[in-house]
Amino acid sequence: AGRKLLDFRMNHAALAYAMTTLGAAMINNIFSFYYVKLFINKYKTSETAFHQSQLVFMLWNAINDPLFGYLQDTSTMRCCSQRRLSILYGAPLYSLTFLLPWFPWRSYYPGDWLSGLHLMVALCAFDGLLTFVLLAQCALFAEISSNHQNRLRLVQYSQVASLVGSSSILFCGVLSRNMEDFAAFQAFSVLVAVLSCGCMLYTGFYGQSRYDNRGCVQEGACVAEPPSPVSFAALRTLMWQILTNRDFQLFVIMNFFQVFMLAFLSNFTMIFTEHLIPADVLPPLAKSIMYGAGFICPQLLVLSSQGLLHSLGYYRIILYTFYLEAGLAALVLVLGPQHYYLLAFFLTVTMVLIQASFSLFGLPLADIIDTDLLTYRRSSPLSSMVFGTNALFTKPGQSLAPMMVLSILNQFGYEHLKDAGKSAAGGELEVLHSVMFYLVCLVPMCVAAMQALVWRLYSI
């Protein structure tokens, strides 16, 4: 009976944790997949304004994670120190900021400065609330239980939730014809925002951390001084302790490239597909299914790999995905761009592998948090700070990827050729398509190779 009660409590805790994953997956995937195309192709934002917005976003994106992490780990305010309350109060604003990009502030003309400001505000507001809510959820992952099997259960529940939430991409693509029907896209975005907010509020009401009552001695934790008052000196000391962990350093390097690849694929898969794969080979519905599969199948892959997670462990599985990504990219590069179905398959599989392996990254970070807790004899773990410090160095990849790729494409005429279609000069279009193909193959191949070299040194 006691065992059943413990299982019931753990299942309920996992469900509460996963509801934020469900809500976040609904809106994050749509945001990251559509915002670049929206501002570049529909709002006609200039390359200069786009880069300026990304630079501001990159700075804010890097700073807010350790800042919010430190606040959540050391603050005496319950809305910050208790994980579920951070989610409860942050979720409505998080869902609201998701709607910012999809409603233009006026009818934009090409190169309109206001569209650039709109992009900057949308990116910074959305990421700020995303950080506040998801840092609290990441901390919950490490703090619900220190048992490895229980953490795998959290991963399992989270992947089911992410699977359901990621279907928003598929429905959005089908209902709006990949954003061609913009009014339908806007209506669907409002519906998704409301649903996602409701899901995250469930976590806000029912999610529980073992360390919610700060100042009490927790089971399995060593007695130490209570959290110190918020100060720059304390922040500097705690960050130095985290940064000197060699496994944390290796993880951050590997994770930076993973975040870069996620942004690269999320922002440009639709653009690459429309240019490199003719419409008579893959009609719009097939492309919508392809895009949806890129976000849905990662969760199916993780759920079907639970046995491998138990037998091989997350370390080897992550390493093997890097080998597979590099191998597939090399194969497609050798065969060439004329194999359209293979190219579509490669883009989808690469998205799936990168998203699936990224879903496991909470496990090594949780182990790093446990090691830090024991090493420095803390009364409670610095869960949010570890996740936030990791984000300080990895989040810039979200901005660097679109900036670098857009700059490369515009050097070969993308800004002028993106809407030209068949009326464009054949030679110019062929050169642009060739550049796109090399980006599709060489970026995943080189990045995966570097990740494998770094990850092999990880020791926990």
From TrEMBL:
Cellular compartments annotated: Membrane
Coiled coil ranges: none
Major localization class: membrane
Bilayer disposition of the protein: Multi-pass membrane protein
Listed GO CC annotations: membrane
Pfam families: MFS_2
Membrane-spanning intervals of the chain: 14-36, 87-105, 117-142, 154-176, 182-205, 248-268, 317-335, 341-366, 435-458
Lineage top rank: taxon: Eukaryota
InterPro entries documented for this protein: MFS_trans_sf, TMEM180
UniProt keywords, alphabetically: Membrane, Transmembrane, Transmembrane helix
PANTHER family the record matches: MAJOR FACILITATOR SUPERFAMILY DOMAIN CONTAINING 13B, TRANSMEMBRANE PROTEIN 180
Name recorded for this polypeptide: Major facilitator superfamily domain containing 13a-like
